[in-house]
């Protein structure tokens, strides 16, 4: 009997199919000829930084390398192949396959008849999943593969165009009783946060954005997309803020953005006869048309009852002059740096404040909205990001500050979200 497998690696644009767990009881069959046909469609071959092009509906994640794993209903690995992009690396046809051959369609021979499911893990490094572990039979059970961890440091390069990818599907019967098939959609094993710009709130007269930091995230995730609380990392909130940020981002430079430019813009406030215009300073990435972008590990949409410790975001602000009001309701200008210096704050710390974000919602200006859950394979675009006077602190992530952003999503979905401020 011939088993036929058509694999659609549509990367980031499509909604994934339900993946089966490796120990699901699924169809048993016998494969007399041991032939399995695989074809990867719409896979981009190989062709940075954290200011990048915004993701769009037309973006497709590249498959650069990876593994095909054939398994049984009891999670035993029966056959594996390493996927490579360079023909010179196909030195062992029994265990190595060329991406281009998969795009054109390739028949694998000698696949055992008790194989019932197939998986592809793409764009992983050797320190995450090593081909030698397959070849020397160190990995014999697919659950061992799923327990391997991928690193957040490997998810950001080249506009996140080759993040880690995964899907597993069981073989299904078709109208031809001699043919089994499965369709896989390779989806990113991480999510992405995009910030296009930062604006001043109505009471901000002058300010300067000095840095934007993803400040609480998981540094690694299992391939099965479950997270370990011990892998969640953040700056030391008890330290001096500047020291804490400097020390922490030496280890995670791709989660820090300092490439920031000021742009003077005219905005309209009010409506009708009450409408008025004013000049404000907005902040953007230095390079035109880019966004500040951060990879992170979220939840797996096919698994319920997951926990996620959440994201933390910090914006460092200096040069603050804000509009305050006296007891009679009269406005006056308040120079934060001058006030700090008058109170004996050191000059290198005077006037510096931090906007601490620890939540995201999908409904703008709804203070009662529940915080969203983050899912892998989605892009979360921050909307209406304003610096306000109410939520600035001289500490990073103080326990008494609760600020939420509003975002939105699409697979490599973009979701617009807002800071809950």
Question: Explain this structure to me?
Answer:
A hairpin with a 1-residue loop joins strand 32 (404-411) and strand 33 (413-419). The protein contains 6 helices and 33 strands. The strands form 8 sheets. Strands 5, 16, 24, 28, 29, 32 and 33 form a 7-stranded mixed sheet that branches. Strands 18, 20, 21, 25, 26, 27 and 31 form a 7-stranded antiparallel sheet that branches. Helices cover 9% and strands 38% of the residues. The protein is mostly beta strands and 421 residues long.
Map the helices and strands.
Layout: E1 2-4, E2 7-8, E3 36-38, E4 40-41, E5 51-52, E6 66-71, E7 77-84, E8 96-98, H1 99-104, E9 106-108, E10 117-122, H2 131-135, H3 142-147, E11 149-151, H4 157-160, E12 165-170, E13 172-173, E14 179-181, E15 187-188, E16 191-195, E17 199-200, E18 204-218, E19 220-222, E20 232-233, H5 241-248, E21 256-257, E22 260-269, E23 276-285, E24 291-296, E25 312-325, E26 331-335, H6 336-342, E27 353-357, E28 359-361, E29 378-382, E30 386-387, E31 392-393, E32 404-411, E33 413-419
Parallel strand pairs: 1-3, 1-14, 2-4, 7-8, 16-29, 17-30, 28-32, 29-33
Antiparallel strand pairs: 3-9, 5-24, 6-7, 6-10, 10-12, 11-19, 12-15, 13-14, 16-24, 18-20, 18-21, 18-25, 22-23, 25-26, 25-27, 27-31, 28-33, 32-33
DSSP strand (E) fraction?
35-45%
Give the overall silhouette.
elongated
Tally the helices: 6
Q: Strand tally, please?
A: 33
Work out the helicity level. Answer: under 10%
What do the pLDDT scores average to?
A: 79
Report low-confidence residues grouped into runs of 5 or more.
1-33, 42-49
* Euclidean distance between termini CA atoms: 61 Å
Instruction: Give the radius of gyration.
Output: 25 Å
Strand count, sense and closure of the main sheet? 7 strands, mixed
Estimated structural class: mainly beta
